């Protein structure tokens, strides 16, 4: 709900200035220097695979999972494209990495930022618990299966040191959010690696690994082509966003 409220505020503000929209500022040509960074950010915003098993397992009707997945991605793409386009028309070349920083009034900006904090707090548990579950399966199932003992007591309660570990994960992510500058470029850099691996390479690889014997040649070729695109986009994106990070840090920290 807070996310919808924030988007409504920003879009409403943009529509108020529709007469000043910079239609001529929109370039339909591709900037090959910045496009890989943008692609990394876009791919990073769709790396939802880590949440999907948890989400499907908690659905009242899991049979509708595929339908939900298809339409949610379609409408997310439509909304993100429209939102970015409208915001750029409004703020034009002054559009900042975090769009709320373009809002003119300090009070107005503060209200939106408070809503963003609420939205972050409400949306944090899903990826947090999914990440903790993966880490616990890999490291905290008990010896000799994993390097560390289980964080769960025999009565099913979380051990004290297990609680401390989970709090440590939260603190670590908060510190990253607070102290890592040039967030959009960093998102492009991470997205170019993890995003392409999660969205392009690994799904096709495991599809081939598990279903190759029942797949036709066209499907196999398509999977290999997607893997090729994943490696191509990933390498180019890492190179370009890495250079952008180096240039950004050479200028100085943004605070």
UniProtKB/TrEMBL annotation:
The chain crosses the membrane at residues 6-23, 35-52, 72-91, 163-183, 189-208, 220-239. Residues 6-238 form the Amino acid transporter transmembrane domain. Keywords: Cytoplasmic vesicle, Membrane, Neurotransmitter transport, Transmembrane, Transmembrane helix, Transport. GO terms for molecular function: L-amino acid transmembrane transporter activity. GO terms for biological process: neurotransmitter transport. Signal peptide: none annotated. It is a multi-pass membrane protein. One of its GO terms (cellular component) is vacuolar membrane. It comes from the Eukaryota. It is found in: Cytoplasmic vesicle membrane. Belongs to the amino acid/polyamine transporter 2 family. This is Amino acid transporter transmembrane domain-containing protein. It comes from Phaedon cochleariae (Mustard beetle).
């Amino acid at each position: 709900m807070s996310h919808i409220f924030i988007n409504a505020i920003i879009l409403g503000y943009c529509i108020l200035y529709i007469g000043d929209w910079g239609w001529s500022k929109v370039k339909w040509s591709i900037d090959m220097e910045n496009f890989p960074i943008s692609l990394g950010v876009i791919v990073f915003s769709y790396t939802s695979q880590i949440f999907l098993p948890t989400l499907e397992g908690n659905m009242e009707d899991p049979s509708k999972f595929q339908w939900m997945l298809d339409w949610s991605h379609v409408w997310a793409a439509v909304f993100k494209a429209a939102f970015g386009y409208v915001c750029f028309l409004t703020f034009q070349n002054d559009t900042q990495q975090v769009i709320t920083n373009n809002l003119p009034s300090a009070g107005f900006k503060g209200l939106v930022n408070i809503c963003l904090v609420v939205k972050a707090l409400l949306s944090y548990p899903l990826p947090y618990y999914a990440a903790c579950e993966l880490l616990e399966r890999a490291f905290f199932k008990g010896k000799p299966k994993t390097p560390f003992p289980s964080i769960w007591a025999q009565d099913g309660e979380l051990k004290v040191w297990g609680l401390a570990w989970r709090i440590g994960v939260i603190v670590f992510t908060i510190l990253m959010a607070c102290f890592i500058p040039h967030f959009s470029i960093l998102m492009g850099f991470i997205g170019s690696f993890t995003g392409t691996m999660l969205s392009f390479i690994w799904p096709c690889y495991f599809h081939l690994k598990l279903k190759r014997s029942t797949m036709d040649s066209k499907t196999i070729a398509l999977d290999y082509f997607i893997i090729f695109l994943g490696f191509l986009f990933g390498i180019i994106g890492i190179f370009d966003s890495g250079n952008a990070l180096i240039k950004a840090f050479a200028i100085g920290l943004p605070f």
